[in-house]
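WARN retry 2 of 3 for item q-0093 after timeout on previous attempt; input resubmitted unchanged.
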Amino acid sequence: MKWDFIMKYLPLYQKSAVLTVKIGVAGILLSILIGIFCTAAQNFRIPFLRQAANVYVEISRNTPLLIQLFFIYYGLPKIGIRTNAEVCGIAGLAFLGGSYMAEAFRSGIEAVETVQYESAYSLGLSRWQTLRYVVFPQALSICMPAFMANVIFLLKETSVFSAISLMDLMFTAKDLIGLYYQTTESLFLLVIFYLLILLPVSLAGSLLERRLRYAGFGT
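OK item q-0093 returned
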């Protein structure tokens, strides 16, 4: 292990890690918004939007992120829509993540028993009040494990951004290996930085799951 090589290129990995996190967070936030919209369209049974959301979910979940990135980065300019690599990465991550978030939210809402709705209506709550005070809190606790799994999954999927020349962590590692053939040191730094990004997210997710345990809402 050549520690001088590691110390020399540590700042480069730090810069790449910042870019990876920035794109990952932006893509995840957009995917949450898309997931909420699709879940609302599916559960409120809005005719056209419901079908569109179902088609989107099936296309998104059954195509690889790499193919989606290639379509956005190389395909859209053919019809006059041009984006830079960062915007392409965020859009691709949001497109993929939106479908996974939608399914997580939908499963949480559908897991709430019908008697919960009936009890709320019998107490005089409106539909919106029932959703806000009865259904959403329970659905949130149910879907939290799937939600956090999706967040971690999307952060790991940023590793394919090197295919569109984004200088993320994977691009940096591959570039240094190709230039200097220091495979062990480059991969060591790659693993360390991914652990620094993903491990806190995983621990925070475990804490949230315990705090929002179903029928507990905090122990």
